[in-house]
Amino acid sequence: MIRNIYIDTSVFGGYYDTEFAIDTRQFFDRVINDKISILVSDIVTNELKTAPKNVVDFYYSLPKDIIKQIDITDEIKTLADKYIEANILNAKHLHDCWHIAAATIFDADIVVSWNFKHLVNYERKRGYNLVNLKEGYKTIEIVTPKEVFIYEPD
């Protein structure tokens, strides 16, 4: 059973994106109805500062009791640096590595993202998990909102 989901900023933006809105809205309906904890790091809250107003308003409209704020710690930064050293991403995309490291260290069940280039990508997922195992951490699933739950047809 899913208890904690780490969500990156792209998922909040997906709520209003024409390509991703239906899947994102179904995902959030399920999270809210099942009272699943959403883990968000201060990377997300910082990125939301430059997001469109409707995305920011949506984030702040979510029930406060399901959102758990995560601070980026030295342990997260160290693990993220290991991803960079393993050439999973280059240092230009360090914040994406911080997302995975934060989810790993704070024991998220899964990471949910619409970022296909840096997160929801077979080779990258494999790389993150190889580093996690090498460093003594658990592996982590990285999926889109569409892949999290079994959604009943309308």
Report the CATH superfamily: 5'-nuclease
What is the overall number of helices?
7
**How many E strands?**
5
Fraction in helix = 40-55%
N/C terminus separation: 23 Å
Query: What is the radius of gyration?
Result: 15 Å
Overall residue-averaged pLDDT value: 95
Secondary-structure-derived class = alpha/beta
Q: Give the CATH level 1 class.
A: Alpha Beta
Task: State the shape.
Answer: globular
Tell me the CATH topology. Answer: Rossmann fold
Main sheet properties: 5 strands, parallel
**What is the domain total for the residues?**
1
CATH architecture: 3-Layer(aba) Sandwich
* Strand ordering within the main sheet: 3-2-1-4-5
Q: What is the N-to-C order of secondary-structure elements (H for helix, E for strand)?
A: EHHEHHEHHEHE
Can you characterise this structure?
- With 154 residues, this protein is an alpha/beta fold.
- The chain has a single domain (4-147), classed as Rossmann fold, CATH 3.40.50.1010.
- The protein has 7 helices and 5 strands.
- The chain has helices spanning 9-14, 21-34, 42-48, 53-61, 74-85, 94-105, 122-134; strands at 4-7, 37-41, 67-70, 110-112, 141-143.
- The chain has a 5-stranded parallel beta sheet.
- Strand 4, helix 7 and strand 5 (141-143) form a beta-alpha-beta unit.
- Helix 5 (74-85) packs across helix 6.
- The longest helix is centred in the N-terminal third of the chain and has 14 residues, at 21-34.
- It is globular, with a radius of gyration of 15 Å.
- The chain starts with a strand and ends in an 11-residue tail after the last strand.
- The model has no long low-confidence stretch (mean pLDDT 95).
